[in-house]
From TrEMBL:
This is CUL9 protein. Residues 19-96 form the Cullin neddylation domain. SMART domains: Cullin_Nedd8. The gene is Cul9_2. SUPFAM superfamilies: Winged helix' DNA-binding domain. Gene3D superfamilies: Winged helix-like DNA-binding domain superfamily/Winged helix DNA-binding domain. It comes from Asarcornis scutulata.
Length: 100
C-alpha cells in the first residue's frame, strides 16, 4: 500500500475559481451601476460601456484591479446571469433593450 502525494492542482483550481468569481462580481456591479444611471439601454451600448470602463480602469469606488481584463463574452455572461436573477429585464416589444 502506498499513499499518493497531495495533488497540487486543486489549490490552483480554487484560486482560479475565486478570481473568476471576483471578476464576475465586479462586472455585475458595473453593469448594475451603468443601468441604474441610464434606466434602459441597448445591449450593444451596455457591453461597449462596460468594456470601455474596464479599459480605462473606471471600475467604481473601492474596486482596484491592477490587470483587470474583460471581453464581450464575459460581459454578456454577466448580463444573462443578471437576467436570470431578475435584476434586469427585457422590454416585450424590443428585447434588445435592457432595463434595470
Amino acid at each position: 500500500l502506498r499513499l499518493l502525494p497531495r495533488q497540487r492542482y486543486l489549490r490552483a483550481e480554487r484560486a482560479e475559481s475565486g478570481a473568476l468569481e471576483r471578476k464576475r462580481n465586479v462586472l455585475c456591479c458595473l453593469l448594475s451601476r451603468i443601468l441604474k444611471a441610464e434606466r434602459r439601454l441597448h445591449i450593444d451600448n451596455l457591453v461597449f460601456r462596460v468594456l470601455a470602463a474596464c479599459q480605462k480602469g473606471e471600475l467604481g469606488p473601492g474596486l482596484q484591479f491592477p490587470s483587470f481584463c474583460c471581453h464581450s463574452v464575459d460581459v454578456l455572461s454577466c448580463v444573462l446571469h443578471l437576467l436570470n436573477q431578475g435584476y434586469l429585464r427585457r422590454q416585450e416589444e424590443r428585447p434588445h433593450v435592457l432595463e434595470y
